[in-house]
Amino acid sequence: MNTLTNRLRRGSIALAIVAACATALPAHAQDPESKPKAASRQETIGVATGFALGAVAGGPIGAFAGAIAGAWLGDRDHKLALQRTALAADLDKTQGEQARLTQNVTELNGSLAREQERGEQLGLALSQTDEVQLDVGFRTNDDSIQVQSMPPLLKLGALAAALPDAQVRVAGYADPRGTEELNDALSKRRAEAVAAVLETAGLSRDRLIVEAHGKSASTSAEGDIDGYAFDRRVTIRIEKSGEHAVARND
């Protein structure tokens, strides 16, 4: 009789072990279309611990119940651990992005401060000078800008573009030879050519005042070839906005 009882008890324990192992498998493993998933460390420990405690407390039935409870608790702990790890990774990523954004804002603020300081220095320099002026010379009966005149023109245009309260007056002139009508048109073409270069340097058109004076400002004596060279020019002046009345010849 004792032998039969021991066999039944061992059979019950074996059955409990098999059942406990089955309950330790992930729920979706029962789906034939899903891939089997290995039990987590927490789940395995839970099954073993529950089975041992259940066996001590209630024999085969207790072992079976303990294994089930241990598997559930182990699986829950495993999922909570994964969630904590994911949250920690997200927090680290967010903190890293926040640090990069803070650094970018700091760099932008520094650049803005430097640009403002540069603008203030340029404005101060202009305020201490009545006018910044440049003259561009031209050949006889020609309105094309010579190569050597381009760099100073571009620099002046960039300077004026950096001064928000500045305007640029572009005045064209001609020597006294030829008719008044011809020289007016020639001086206008010369002034427009210079204005186009200043726009290329970044100066907006609405800050340009283009004038054509023809031969009206010539002071050269008749036949003074050297003096005529100074009459064939375009004068560029940087002025404060509103400093002089706008006189535009279109």
Your description of this structure?
By secondary structure, the chain is of the alpha+beta class. It has helices at residues 2-24, 41-127, 150-161, 180-200, 225-231; strands at residues 132-137, 166-172, 208-212, 233-240. The chain has 2 domains: 1-128, no CATH class; 131-240, 2-Layer Sandwich (60s Ribosomal Protein L30, Chain: A), CATH 3.30.1330. Strand 2, helix 4 (180-200) and strand 3 form a beta-alpha-beta unit. It is rod-shaped, with a radius of gyration of 46 Å. Mean pLDDT is 75; it is low at 13-32 and 245-250.
A few lines on this structure:
By secondary structure, the protein is of the alpha+beta class.
Strand content: 5-15%
Question: Strand order, biggest sheet?
Answer: 1-4-2-3
Low-confidence stretches are 13-32, 245-250
Helix content: 55-70%
Number of helices: 5
Query: Shape, please?
Result: rod-shaped
Write the layout of secondary structure elements.
Elements: H1 2-24, H2 41-127, E1 132-137, H3 150-161, E2 166-172, H4 180-200, E3 208-212, H5 225-231, E4 233-240
Parallel strand pairs: 2-3
Antiparallel strand pairs: 1-4, 2-4
Helix pairs in contact: 1-2, 3-4
List its traits.
60s Ribosomal Protein L30, Chain: A; 4 strands; 250 residues; four-stranded mixed β-sheet; 5 helices
